[in-house]
Amino acid sequence: MKVEIVQIADRGKPSNERIHLRVLVNTNMQYYIIFDSTYTSPNAISNKQRHAFWFPPHPVRAGDNVILVTGVGTQRHEPNTQGGTNHFFFWGLDRTIWNNTGDCAVLFEVSTWQASKYE
Questions:
Q1: Would the pTM of this model clear 0.85, i.e. be above it?
Q2: What span, in angstroms and rounded, lies between the C-alpha atoms of 64 and 85?
Q3: Which one, of 67, 88, 89, lies nearest residue 21 by Cα?
Q4: Whole-angstrom Cα distance, residue 1 to residue 79?
């Protein structure tokens, strides 16, 4: 995986709740989806995904940080103190989702997909 989860910060705080990701290898965020899930036991993740965020096309470089804020805001980026860039994305939700100790984030790297329209 070219991106890793660092932490979920400020769980349950509506204006601050966010997921911090670190970019390990140059990539494009359009290939990543985050799901909100739960644990079924200490070492097993549920297959029930309650929320999903598919990142828009956006190139990132090794050493960059990607911050996904649960709330509303405008996508932006700014230099960080390590010489990379912090990229901010906003889920646009009006409530927190990482508000329970049983919640977990699952990051998927998706290199290909197919969509089918209901007709």
A1: yes
A2: 5
A3: 67
A4: 24
